[in-house]
Amino acid sequence: MITIKSHSELDLMRRAGKIVAGTFDALRRAVKPGVTTKELDAIAYDYIRSHNATPSFLNYGGFPASICASINDTVIHGIPDDTKLCDGDIISLDIGACYKGFHGDSAKTFAVGKISADAQRLIDVTRQSFYEGVQFATRKNRVGDVSAAIGNYVEENGFSVVRDYTGHGVGRNLHEDPSVLNFGRPGHGPRLMAGMTIAVEPMVNAGDYGVYVEDDDWTVRTDDGSLSAHYEHTILITDGACEILTQL
Ligand code: MG
Ligand code: MG
To answer: What pLDDT was estimated at residue 176?
Structure first.
C-alpha cells in the first residue's frame, strides 16, 4: 500500500531528512585514509542520537550497525568493522535516521584520498543518474518514468544498474511501497501522487550488473569484482519539481 503523508507527517520527514544530511556533513570530513568504517559508524551514531533521532538501520532485520559502509566492489550493506580506508578507495555510505516515527534514507559514494579517473566517473555518473531520474518524479508521472531515465543514463555511459535491489517508498517504515527500480519502461508502474515520499537510489556497477551476498548474509558485492557506487535521497512528490528531503 502506498501512503500519502499529511502536512504534519511531512514536517517530521523533513526533520528526519535534515538529520541524515547533517550526518553526511559530519562524515564527509572524517572519510580519509586510515579511518576505520567502525569509527565512521560511531560518528554517525553520535550525531543521530544527539539530534533526538535513532539510526534507522541499527538492528533493522538484525543489521548490527548504524550505517552501511561499502568499499570498492561492495555494492550495499557493508558492515562497519576495523577495516581502514586506503588512499584510492571509494566508499558508499548509506544512512537512515528516524525522527518521531518517520525515516529519512540517503546514500553517497566518497573518494578516499586520490582516486582514479575511472572511479571518479563512476561516482559522477551514479550521482547524475539520480538527477536524470527525479526530473520525472512529479505528480501524474509513473514510477517507470523515473526508473527508465536512471537506467538509460547509466547505460549510455557504459555502466550497469544493479537489478536485485531497488529504491522504495519511505515514511513510518524504512521500506514501503512502491518499489522504485533503477531500470524500466516509461509509462509503467504506479502513478506518482503529491504527498508520496520515496527513496530513489541508483546502485551502479562499473562492470556487469551481477551481484552476490557474502556469507555474513548482508554484504552485497559485484560478481566481477568491479567497482560499485550508490546515490540516494528521500524525495517528496509534489505538483511540481520534487522536494529532496535528505539535504540541508
Ligand atoms: Mg539507504
Ligand atoms: Mg533506501
So the answer is: 98
Ligand 1 center to 67 CA (angstroms)? 9
Q: Which residue has the cell 557474502?
A: 214
Question: What is the rounded CA–CA span in Å between residue 111 and residue 107?
Answer: 14
**Ligand number nearest to the C-alpha of 97:** 1
Residue 57 CA to ligand 1 centre (angstroms)? 9
Q: Give the Å distances, CA to CA, from 70 to 5, 135, 221.
A: 31, 27, 9
Q: Please check whether residue 189 is in contact with residue 142, taking contact to mean a CB–CB distance below 8 angstroms.
A: yes
232 Cα: distance to centroid of ligand 1 (angstroms):
6
| Residues lower than pLDDT 50 in the chain | none
Direct distance between the N- and C-terminal alpha carbons of the chain, in angstroms, rounded to an integer? 29
**Rounded to the nearest whole angstrom, what is the distance from the C-alpha of residue 151 to the centroid of ligand 2?**
17
Residue 166, SS3 per DSSP: coil
| CA–CA separation, 229 and 157 (whole Å) | 14
Question: How far is the centre of ligand 1, averaged over its atoms, from the C-alpha of 105 (Å)?
Answer: 5
Which residue, among 247, 238, 233, 167, has the nearest Cα to 196 in the 3D structure?
Answer: 238
Distance 230 CA to ligand 1 centre (A): 9
Q: What is the pLDDT of residues 158-204, one digit of tens each?
A: 999 999 999 999 999 999 999 999 999 999 999 999 999 999 999 99
Cα distance between residue 92 and residue 228, in whole Å: 8
Using the mean position of ligand 1's atoms as its centre, give its distance from the Cα of residue 5 in Å: 20
